[in-house]
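Every protein is a chain of amino acids, and every chain bends into a shape of its own. The protein below has been through that process, and both of its lines are reproduced in full.
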Amino acid sequence: FTCGSASGSSFVWKRASEGALTSNSIMASPRSLRKAASAPLRDVREVFVPGFFQDAHILGALAAMKSFGQDPQDLLVGCEGAAGVLGVCLFQDGEWCFEIIDDFLPVQRLGKPACCHTVTDREVKDWAALIEKACAKCYGTYEALTRRSELDALEDFMDVGANKVDLREFPIWGELWQHMRTLEERGAVMMLAVRRREAVGEKLTNGLISGFGYPLLRTDYVDNEMVCELVNPWPRGSYIDRKSAPLDAEPTSKSFSMSIHEFCQHFTEILEVRLLPPDWQVATVACSAERPCYPLISVPHAAQGILVATDCGDQGSYEARTSTLGLRVFRCRVVAPPSHSVGARQDVSNPFRNLEILAERHVSARSVVVELPQLEPSCLYLATVELDDPSSWAALRVFTSSSQRFRELSTPEAAYFVEAQSSASLVDLEESSRCPRTGSRMSAGTRRVGDANFQSYRSRLGDESVHGIDPPLVPRGHDPLLVPEPPKIPCEPRRRARGRGRGQSLDFGQMPHMFQALFGSCTTSLRC
C-alpha cells in the first residue's frame, strides 16, 4: 500500500526499530510490549499528536479507549524487532483478525513525523503510528483514512459496534443528559463528543478544536446543575470558558467540565460504545440479501442483550456511504390455549401469531446496534437484517449477559415468520423493559398476553398436519416449557481470533431446538 496522494518526494520511509520517530520505539526491543502493558492506563501526561493524513479520528478513538481504562496498546499483539515485523489486531467483518505490517513509517524530509504519535514527558512514542499504518493497510492507502470517522475507528478497535446518538430525539437538553446518565447506570459505556461545524483542526474562541474528539467521562449534579466531565487528549484545545472545577477530587490538567447547556452548544455528535464484560456470551451468523437469515434467540434466565449488525461489504471503499443498514428485533410470546379447550386443535400453521416488534433501526453507517435491557425467559426473540445493496453481506452478532440458545429458523418456520411480520404489533422497548413479572396485573387490571401458564391438554389424534408438522401430544399436567433440554452447546465467550479469515461459525444443526416446546416431538421436520 502507499501514502496515496501524499506519497510524493516530500516524504521518506524510516524504520521504527531504528528510531524513525524516537529512540523510545515500540519496535526497539521485544520487552517494550511487556513494559507498555505494565504502564498505567490513564497517564495524564500523554498527549495525542495528529499527523499529516488527517488522522484525528483514529487518535480520538484511541484516546477514548485510554480514558475509559482500555489499553489501546493491547492491539499490538506481537513484534519481531530485528525483522521489523509487527502484528496489529483489528476487528473486521465481524471478527478479530491480524494485520501484519512492517515498521517503515512516513516521515517528512525535515524530520517531522507525517503520521500520528503520542508524547509522554517529551518522549515521542510510535505505537499509535503503527496502529494507524495497520488501518491504512486494511483500507488500502493512507488517503483512504481521511474518508473515515471516529465511528469507524471505534468499530475497528472494539468488538462491539459503535452507535451515534441521534440528537434530534432529545430536543430538551435535560433529556439528553438523563439519557447519558441512564447509560452510565446501566453499565460501562464509552462516549466521545465531536464538533463538526467548522473545518477540521480549526480552534474556536472557547479553546475547543473542531473535528477533534473529546472523551466524555461521566455526568453528575454540581450545585443543582447538570454537568458533564470531558478529557482533552490533545496538545492544544483546552476548554477556556470553564465555570466549574473538574468533578474529580484530584483534578488533572486534561479534564474539564461544562454544563449540559454548554455541552449541547459546543458539540454536534455523541458516539457511544458499550463496554461488555468478558463473560458475556456471543453468537454470530452471516446473512445477505439473497440469503437472509432469521436467528432465533432465547435465554433460560432474565438477561440483557445487545444485537449488532455489521455491513461487511464496503471494506476499503473510498466513497461515502449511501446505502442503509437496518435491524429489526421481534419478540414472540408463548400463549396457552383457553382452559376449556381440552382436545382443541393447536394452531400450528401460525406459530408466530403473537409477534411483536421490539426495536427497528435504519442507519447509513457501517453497523447498527440495538440494546435490549431485559430478555425474558418465557419469550422467543428473532432478528432480521435489511441490506440495500444486494451484493453485500452482513454479520449479525448477539451478545447476552447469560447463556443463550441460538439457532436459525428452518424453511417452514421462516415462511411463517415472514408472513407474520406484516401483522406484528409495535411495543415500546423502554416500557417493555419495565413490565411486571409473568402473571402480574397491568394498571388497567388485565393480564398481559401470554402470561397464563400452559394448561394440560391433549391434541386430538385426528388433527391434520400442516406442511409435515404433526400436532404434539402433551401429557396431562406436563408443562411444555419444562421439557428436558437437549444437550446444550454453550456459546464461546468473546475472544480475539488467532488469525485472519472467517471465524468458526456455529453448527445450527446441533443447537437446542426451541420449537420443541411448541410442537412436541416433531423435531425431524423442523430441524435446520
Remarks:
- Residues 281-335+352-430 form a domain with the Jelly Rolls fold (CATH 2.60.120.380).
- The chain has three domains: 11-155, 162-274, 281-335+352-430.
- The two ends are 43 Å apart (CA to CA).
- The chain has a mean pLDDT of 73.
